[in-house]
Structure formats: C-alpha cells, structure tokens
Amino acid sequence: MRRLKRMMEDLDRDIRDHIERETEDNIARGMTPEEARYAAFRKFGNVTRMKEETREVWSLVWLEQLLQDIRLGFRMLRKSPGFTAVAILTLALGIGANTAIFSVINGVLLSPLPYKNPKQLVAMKENDSLPNVMDIQRQVRAFSQGGGINVEPMDYTGGSEPVQVRVGLINAGFLETLSVQPMLGRIISPGEDVQGGPRLAMVSNYFWQNYLGSDPHAVGNTIHLGGKSYTVIGVMPASFAPPAEHADVFVSLWVGSPGAAADRGVHFMHTYWRLKAGVTLAQAQTDMAAIDRRLAEQYPAEEKERKRQLVSLHEWLVGDVRSALLVLFGAVGLVLLIACANFASLLMVRAFTGRQELVIRAALGAGRGRLIRKALTESVLLSVLGGAAGLLFAQWGTSMLLALKPEKLARLSGIHMDTRVLLFVLVVSVLTGIVFGMGPVWIAARADVAEALKESGRSTTASTMGHSIRGILVTSELAVALVLLVGAGLLIKGFSRLRSMNPGFNSANVMTMYLQLPTTRYGEIPKQTQFRRELLTRLNFLPGVQAAMVTDIPLGGNYVGHRFVIDGRPPVAVGGEPEVQTLSVMGNYFHVMQIPLRAGREFTPLDREGQPLVAIVNEEMVREFFPHEDPIGVRIRWAGDTGLPRWMTVIGVVGDVKHSGLNQPTDPAVYTPFSQSDEAWRRFMTLAIRARDASPGLVEEVKRQIWSLDGQIPVGDVHAMDELIAVSLAQQRFNMLLLGLFAALALILAAVGIYGAMAYAANQRTHEIGIRTALGAQRRDVLRLVMRDGARIALFGIASGIAGALALTHLMASLLFEVKPTDPATFAGVAILLAFVVLAACYIPARRAMRVDPMVALRYE
Amino acid sequence: MSTKEQADRIELLQGTLDLLILRTLLLGPAHGHAIAKAIEFNSDDVLQVEQGSLYPALHRLIKRGWISFEDGTSENNRRAKFYRLTPKGRRQLAAETSKWGKLAAAIARILRPAG
C-alpha cells in the first residue's frame, strides 16, 4: 500500500512535468501561454481517468472498488428509504413465493427417496398375490430382490381400549428390497417367512414410542394383534416408512393371514422390486412380459390377461403431483418476472433522476465500466436484500403450504430449507439484480455527457427511451398477470364444477366408521352375519339414528372388483369376463346414503341367507351391459365359481355413486346383501350412520354399542362423510388456492407497477400539461391525454396476454376438471377485470394531472 | 470524445502502445514526455497517442518487469523519472516484433492478394 502511495505521488509529478514540457513545446511553436496550456491538457486527455487506470495497474482494484461500492450502495439506500423499502418488498414477495414452491419441489421431486440406492427401486402398477410375487422373484433375473406389502387395520389390545393399528402384512423380501437396517433387533429372515412360521413382529418407531414406551429392551416383548400374540424381534428406524402407505407393525403375511397368502387369485399386495446393478427398467419390463405369458399358461383362471407394468418407484410416488407442482412453479416464476419488471422500473426511474450525478461523475473522469459496476452493485445489493427478506416470506409460506398440503404430498414430508434451497435463493437474487439492474443502468450510462449536461432533466431522447421501455415493461407485466389470472380462473372454474358434482349420495349428517372382525371369533359367515345384524338393530334403536353398513364407503379409498357372467349370454373365455365393482351391504344402505332407487326395489330384511340370491346394480352397469333390455330379473353370477353356480337375480337399479373421487368416472357396480355372501374373508365393513345431529357424543355412543357386543373389536377411520369429500378435493383445492394466490399477487404487483409508471409519466408531463391548460385545454382533454397511455397499455398488454395464455394453458389441461384450457368465459372475464384495473391505476394520476394549476406547472422544473 | 477532428489519424490498438514504448526505449532511457514525442515523431504523426494513456501503460510494463525506472535530472535541470528497458523487456520486444511482423504480413496478404 505504501509503495502504491509513492508510485502515485511520483505519477502526479510526472504528469505535471509532462504537461509543462508540452506547454513549453507549444509556446515554442508560437502559441500564447494560455493556448499552449489548454492544448497540452487536451492532448493529454482526462487526467483523473489516467490516474485511476494507473492505480488499477497496481492494486486489487476490483476488491477495493467492490467494498467501496457496497458501502456507498448502503449509504444510498439508507438515504432513500421509501425506494429501498418498495424495491425490497417487491422482490421479497417474488423471491419468497418462488422459494416456498421450490422447497416443496426440492422435497418432493428432487430429493432422493429415503431408501438405499433408490434409483434401483421399481414399483409394479398392479397389485399382486404372494404366490406370484414368489414366482417372479425366482424367475426374473433383472431383480435382485422383490417383495410386497398389504396394510390391514388390526386391533392392538395392550391398554384398556383396543386400538386400531395398521399392520403391514409383508414377505421377507419386502424389507430386504428397501434395505432397511433395524434400529433395534433384526428383521425377519426368509426361513421364518413360511406357512406355519413363528409369530414375529417388527414395530415402527412410532409404535415403539407410543405403545412400548420407547423401551430399549422392547425386543423380545409380546404384543397382541387381532387376538393373537406376536414376539417383537425388531424396531424400525424413525426414518423408515413403506413407500406409499403408513404401517405401525410388520408381520409375515404367511403368519398374519395364511389364507390370503396362499391364494394366487387375490391380488392385493403392493409390490416393490430392486433392479440388479446395470439392469434397466426396460430390460426388466421385457422379462416381466415373459413371466406374464408363463403364469397365464400355468394358471389361466387367476392369471389370464394380466399385464404387469413396472415404473420407477420415484415416478410411482410423485407422478401425479409432478404436473401440479411444475405448473405452480411456472406460475410462481411468472410472479417473479412481474416483480422483476417492477424492480427494473423502479431502478430506471432512479437511474434517470440520478442522471445528473452520473453525468457529473463521468465528466470528472469516472470510467463507464466503473459507473455501471457501481449501479449494478446497488441493484444486486437490493436484490440480495430482497432475497433475504424473501427467505422469511418463504419460511412462512412453506409452513402454510404444509398446512394446506393434500395427502399425497404428506407422504414425502422432507420439505425444509436445505442448502439447495438457499443456493436457489442466492442464484435467483443475484441474477435478478444483475439482469434487471443492467438495462436501466446501461440506458442511463450511454448518455452523451455534453448532451446530458445541457439538459435540465426533462424530455430528452434518453428519458423518452426510458419512458417507452417502462411502457414495454408495464405492458409485459400486464400480459404475464393475465396469463396467471386465466390459469387461476380456469382452476377455480374447474374446482367449482367439481364441487357442484353430484356424488350420487347426500353426505350431510352422515358419519362413517370402519370395523374389522377378528378371524379367531368371526371366521365363518354366520358368525359375521349375526354380529352385523345385532349391531345394526342396536344402532337403529338410538334416537334419531339411521344406520347401515357397506364393504367400502364411497371416497374411502377402498375398492373391490370381481369378474362376472350374465345368464343366457354367449360364454366368455375363462379370465376374459368383464369386471365390475362389488359391494356388500346390510341395513337400509341406499336410504341412509340417500342413493336414489331408479327401478325395481331395494333389499329388504327378507333378502337373507337361505333365500333366493339377489343383487342391485347401478345405472352405469345398465348402460354398459343392458343398454336395450330391462335388467330387472336378469341373472348374474361371479366368474370363477367352483361348485354349483350361484345365480343372483337383479331386483333393482340405483343411481351412480362417485366411489373413487368426484373427478373419476363411475364404474359399473353390483350390490349384494352381506348375509348372502360366500366370501368369509370380507370380515370388514364401514358403518354409515345418518343422525339428526352428528355430535361427537354419537361416536362414543356407537362405540359403546359395538363394545357391548364385543369388547375386543377395534374401531377406526371415523370420518364425517363431508370430510371424506373434502379430502378427495384436497389436491384440486391446493392447486386452486396456490395458483389463485399467485394470480392475486401478480395482479397487485402489476397494478402497482402500472400505477407507478403512469404516475411518473404524468408527473414528468406536469410542465406540458400546464402549457396545454394555459392554452385552453379542458380537464376532459387532460384526462384523455393521460388515460390514452393507459388504454394503449391495457390494449397491448391484454392482447399479448391472451396470446400467451392460449399458448400456455394447455400445459395445465391435466389439472382441469371439465373446463377447456381455452374457456372463452374465463378469458373474457379476466381481460375485463384487467382492463378495469389498468384504467383505475391510470385514473388516479390522471385526476391529479387534471387539477394541475397551470401557474404552478409552468414554474415546475 | 477527444479525437473527432483528426479523422485520418489512427487510434492505437490495445497492447500496441506497450510495444511502441519498448521499441522507443531500445534506443536508451527516456522520460515520459520524450517517449510520447518520439512515438509521434517516428510515425510521422500518423499514430495519435492520447498522451495520458502512456502512463498507465508505463506502469503496466514496470509491473511486468519489462522496464525499470530511476530518478534523474533532465536536460534543463528538472527532476524526472527515466524509464529503461530491462533484459526481460528486450527479449519480450524481440518476440513481439517478430510476432507483429508475421501478423502484419499475414493481414497484408489477405487484404491485398498477390496478382
């Protein structure tokens, strides 16, 4: 540093010396001393800049200057707190919203699944049976491991009340495939995973903490599940959960449900596979096709026409939320773009008002690069501060997102700020500062110094250029806001369509509750029927209560399908029969759910065991299978019956029910009485209870009735029917709320931007308006003058926004329900809304301009 | 913004000034003003040096070790800094000169093809 100082002093002397010599030379050529000195300086050039350049040769200038610029930048920002606050807030909103969505995307789409080598894991789209899983595991060389799970609620009787826990019935391969290391104890070995094997249980960390008191010696304890005792051999780590479901305890399927384990035709396990190193999904899929053929030949009744499709586990888990998240990310990116346009606009105004200073600096010898750098430092400083504030917004926004999240996102709850999110914020902030700070600075800096010094800060080419660039910025803001509003409008319209969909039943005042009868005491159908009948009798005695039961409640997430045969139709090949949804009911189910009867009659208590078999079908079934005949009196039976055919006579037709979701089509369905069933494995049922007032007291009363019949029956999944509908709408609601929020944010930002641009433009024209008024222009004319600008912006902005929306909304077609991406009503509504917003944003400055006192305006400089 | 009126003069290419300074100092040590004059004189005033830009260039060369400087007294008894070519600078000049020659010849061939 000292050396630099000496060098610079020497340089001063050298330059003085140089000028003197040149002056002397000039005098010698015959100039007057004054002329000579002036000519010498001219020939030398800008002294300050030369000194600056020489200094740069010797120092770590960029660092010095950067620090200096940052200090200076902070000082400038402090001096204009209003500008600083608006700029930071604008960017914080844009960056914050982006960060929140990015952290969800990061957690859900980008982070690897919480299993070892997750890229090797694949899922099978169809459920499968354990015998098939074992055959595939043996025969497909592409897999190193494979296994399946079926989660079943069971009663855990450890404390006073039986509690329902979710038991994962698995095979040994399941845990090996996911490479779980138990936290305590061990996992089940293949030798123990056999028919008649020992009763062993592995418990989840949650179960261990809540029911085993986090006992470090829990291994070896005995627990009672579904009336049977199991020995705990392992405790899972807290980080482990099955890929797509929740389970509290894991037991071998062979041990927990031997009947189901041995049945090749009961396809109920979710299966997962690990690819061998170097094997691709496509290769495995080819192997799978060979297996499909082989199994179909060997077991035509169970396996004919089955096509097993593999999909990477990641895709399987996030596939259907990906498109929603990407659309939201795109939307929030557009919000940022609007925020950036406002930011650039603000900077531009600042650059022009600060132009005099810039020009003086340039005249005093500041290099152009240096000036640009200084201004850029300021804008990057602002954008980084905006990013930091945005991080706070994001923190808050992410917790809001998590509160709103639909079920599907909940499973991957690894949503938090990690280094990747922070890096994202940093990159977005700095880029924003550079890209959007560059334009205004560049325009301001290209000013010709001499020209700029002459002007008094008004109506010059540069500021006209700035004005038109602001116009372009505001117009694009408007266009982008329109795209977002159209997107939000389409989602809102689709959502309201979805909400107003008739589910086919009346959900008001209906409460549901899931029960499963333990095998030990209810293995046979007569026992089950006796319990069901007694329970319904007791429940219907409660004042103001109507109760019935069904195997799977609509929107409850469960579904059983069966193949069936129609009497008198040409025979269909075994395995090729059509499939319908099958439901068993008891009690006045259609009455309780208010599902309308369309033809024939409902079940009566006389339709019971020992009586002729009867069935009720839905309208979709009639449309698909009996389009030209009366279905009443037709006989059907389930395919694959052994022994005597059990023909059921169709006695009625009921309305369609949205079983799998309001946005899902209705499948053909057949209802049969529980008491005429021959499937003893259907030990489960969902109570549907309509009460005048569905108070919590009712739930307790129902439980009391159940336990007065059998104190060992667990009760689970207590939901109001309205709640099930709300849950089924959660994903759509989530999309709509978020996109709506972003669109509102975009609208506000764009309105602020337009207002700012208009107010500034009107202000710049105060002088002109004063002259016009003085020359006799009416207020009306002034109003028209200012509004004309606004109208032009509205016109161009809306037109280009509509073009953009037409190009982009088809990307969100998969998120829309019964609304075309080009829905004209939505487009028109949004365009009108925006036109109003623009005119309102112009009107305020226009009114102010109208009131301009010509005397004041003419003096205005 | 300073050389509009001298349209027929050629502004120097970046880096060329360094080469001209080295060439000038080959004849012996000189002070700043003398170097500027020498360059103008030797190029028959075709090359127009904005004289000030000489100084950043000189300091650049000092930093690279191609020239050194010493305080001296000039002809009319004024203290001034004298710049002198170092052996390293001499080698650099040789290398640059031959490179420049090749470049100039090549460009000439392209701009005025033989025949």
Question: Gist?
Answer:
The complex is a heterodimer of chains A (861) and B (115). With 861 residues, chain A is of the alpha+beta class.
Structure description:
The complex is a heterodimer of chains A (861) and B (115). With 861 residues, chain A is of the alpha+beta class. Chain A folds into four domains: 2-59, no CATH class; 126-308, no CATH class; 320-500 and 730-859, no CATH class; 518-712, no CATH class. Chain A has 30 helices and 21 strands. In chain A, the strands form two sheets. In chain A, strands 1, 2, 3, 4, 5, 6, 7, 8, 9 and 10 form a ten-stranded mixed β-sheet that branches. A six-stranded mixed β-barrel of chain A has the order 13-14-19-16-18-17. Chain A is elongated, with a radius of gyration of 38 Å. The model of chain A has no long low-confidence stretch (mean pLDDT 84). The radius of gyration of chain B is 16 Å and the shape is globular. The N and C termini of chain B lie far apart (41 Å). Chain B has a single domain (10-111), classed as Orthogonal Bundle (Arc Repressor Mutant, subunit A), CATH 1.10.10.10. In chain B, 50% of the residues lie in helices and 16% in strands.
What are the main properties of this structure?
heterodimer; A: alpha+beta; 4 domains; ten-stranded mixed sheet; 21 strands; B: 115 residues; alpha+beta; Arc Repressor Mutant, subunit A; two-stranded parallel sheet; two-stranded antiparallel sheet; 4 helices
Secondary-structure map:
The complex is a heterodimer of chains A (861) and B (115).
Chain A: H1 2-28, H2 33-44, H3 47-58, H4 61-79, H5 81-110, E1 121-124, H6 130-139, E2 143-156, E3 163-170, H7 172-177, E4 184-185, E5 200-203, H8 205-211, E6 222-225, E7 228-235, E8 249-252, H9 253-256, H10 258-262, E9 270-275, H11 281-298, H12 300-303, E10 310-312, H13 313-353, H14 355-363, H15 368-404, H16 407-410, H17 419-445, H18 449-454, H19 461-499, E11 510-516, H20 519-522, H21 525-541, E12 545-550, E13 561-566, E14 579-587, H22 589-593, E15 597-600, E16 614-618, H23 619-625, E17 635-638, E18 648-654, E19 669-673, E20 684-691, H24 696-709, E21 715-720, H25 721-728, H26 730-764, H27 766-774, H28 779-808, H29 824-850, H30 854-859
Parallel strand pairs in A: 3-8, 5-7, 14-19, 16-18
Antiparallel strand pairs in A: 1-9, 1-10, 2-3, 2-9, 4-7, 5-8, 6-7, 11-20, 11-21, 12-14, 12-20, 13-14, 13-17, 15-18, 16-19, 17-18
Helix pairs in contact in A: 1-2, 1-3, 4-15, 5-13, 5-15, 5-17, 13-17, 13-19, 13-26, 15-17, 19-26, 19-28, 19-29, 21-24, 26-29, 28-29
Chain B: E1 10-11, H1 16-25, H2 32-42, E2 47-48, H3 54-64, E3 67-73, E4 79-85, H4 87-111
Helix pairs in contact in B: 1-2
